[in-house]
Specification:
globular; Rossmann fold; 6-stranded parallel beta sheet; Dihydrodipicolinate Reductase, domain 2; 12 helices; 328 residues; 6-stranded mixed beta sheet; alpha/beta; homodimer; 2 domains; 23% strand
Chain lengths: 328, 328
């Protein structure tokens, strides 16, 4: 017997990309049965594996998304495409979970990491039903920082990222596979916004919004590394109150979606890849401030950093909204 | 006509390794003519290219190094081998420049980056003539921080490293070349000393010693990345006095061995590799403190991070010591 949640009518827009493909796999694993795949006209008609069967890709047109026969839509497309299509799905009555940066920093749209601010997702149900999924570095960072903030109050954050190429899309993964080791480099393949990259601006502003600490000073440096899957972050935080590394580790051991590693174990992208947790380790005192900690994390940027987080939001809002109210 | 410096009798101990091989190349490029190569018994008798000719590798025995026919010895061997051999070369009258960590943190032995504390190298000439060459991350870090400290006073340092595999030796470079991209990982391949890796302890303590700021709080996180050559560092510093990013860039433009990059240019290991400068860019305000800066650097860890720095020390002390006094 399937639950109402499993029967929810789900649309995946951008189903053929790296995150879209993984979203389909996660939906199947989690028992969703009523799923449709949408993509550009170029991919329409293609078949995608889904569970034991297949889905035929439909063209993602405003009309199709507006038709009113979807309970929830997950968008894994670029920002301009999201801006174009999300309003139609929303007008058609679907709850929209958008993984682009189109709505993330717009006032009134919740930006949600379920473990951190899940309740904000439900507020969208009273409005135009659009929820934004955060940046792939902001998700593991806030998942880790929220319990520490609740325990001792965050005053500031320094973060250096080590971001895998899958965050830049499937084509960049192919390019890395074709590269010789002598060609491997560390780059900053983002757009410059003043002195920051747009990735650094996102990481700062999204962290402030998700944690609801709009004045929190966040100093990020974002770097792309020649790793296929898994983002890592070296983090230093200053705290209001005393919190020893041991106490911080205990707090994080009790936190959802976090796995604490003790030396000689430490987080690596390889260990994080394919898993659903944020691996956190190297929890030490930061000697530069009176009350500070140093941490290091790794997380699968396609799963918790993208597809899985969006799906967790979907399950949260679908569970909160009675199936009856969806069958309008 | 060759200068007395070029006629100095130089010995390279560990001549067959990655740094030793590069040292031979740099010595030849810089006009040194009187060079001998030493290595373990396994490599003795091998021929190594040197300029237009060849050097026959001699076994690095205590007796050979003690014979008194070398003006200066460069050691590119492991710490225990340095501890064993350096005293013999020193007793034989050679100035010893040791790239291992055997002498780096021992009181009374200068730890030298010529641009930062070159004068300290000369003090060794009055003693047992042993000079330590710093860790490959401490060299570019202090080269960059010294002029900023002189301008505005350093209060604290956060640093996340992105270290290439050549820092771990030629075998690890071969291993990376044999790896598929799916195997690439970020690791911490050092020994744990309490909560820090020994690499992090070295970076902290050597930075304090070179800058002669024994109480400077330094918070390092060291990470090995799948890049062949070139170390990078994301750095945040707190300062005593006001120093804008523009002023800091001007200070660094006037600093020796530093090249400042302005956006859209930024330092990369690939651009640093094969060059002799520390590339510094991404100079921004650090929003977490009243007077703080964020920077990012890349440096060839085999050149300025090792062989070149040692050779600069060699040239400094050879120039300071009249050739006559060497011909004892």
């Amino acid at each position: 017997m399937s639950s109402p949640l499993e029967n929810a009518r789900i649309g995946i827009v951008g189903a053929t990309g790296a995150v879209g493909t993984l979203t389909l796999r996660l939906l199947s694993e989690r028992g969703f049965k009523n799923v449709r795949a949408f993509a550009s006209s170029r991919s329409a008609g293609k078949e995608l594996p889904f569970g034991d069967g297949k889905l035929v890709v439909e063209e993602a047109t405003p009309e199709a998304l507006r038709a009113g026969d979807l309970d929830l839509c997950l968008f894994s497309v670029g920002t301009s495409r999201s801006e174009e299509l999300v309003p139609h799905a929303s007008a058609g009555g679907a709850i929209c979970i958008d993984k682009s940066s189109a709505y993330r920093l717009v006032d009134g749209y919740p930006l949600v990491v379920p473990e951190v601010n899940g309740a904000r997702a439900l507020e969208a149900l009273e409005r135009d039903r659009i929820i934004a999924n955060p940046n792939c570095c902001a998700i593991p960072l806030t998942t880790t920082l929220k319990p520490l903030h609740d325990a001792a109050g965050l005053k500031s954050v320094h973060v250096a990222t080590y971001q895998s190429v899958s965050g830049a899309g499937a084509k960049r993964m192919e390019a890395l596979r074709a590269e010789s080791p002598a060609e491997h480099n560390l780059i900053m393949d983002w757009t410059w916004e003043g002195e920051d990259s747009d990735e650094e601006s996102k990481l700062r502003q999204e962290t402030q919004k998700i944690l609801e600490l709009p004045e929190l000073p966040v100093a990020p440096t974002c770097v792309r590394v020649p790793v296929l899957v898994g983002h890592s972050e070296a983090i230093w935080i200053e705290l209001e109150d005393d919190l020893s590394p041991e106490q911080a580790a205990d707090v994080l051991r009790g936190a959802p979606s976090v796995r604490v590693l003790d030396l000689p174990e430490f987080p690596t992208p390889k260990d994080a890849a394919g898993g659903n947790e944020v691996l956190v380790g190297r929890i030490r005192c930061d000697p530069t401030v009176a009350r500070g900690l140093s941490l290091y994390l790794s997380c699968d940027n396609l799963r918790k950093g993208a597809a899985l987080n969006a799906l967790q939001i979907a399950e949260l809002v679908l569970a909160a909204e009675p199936a009856a109210s969806r069958s309008r």
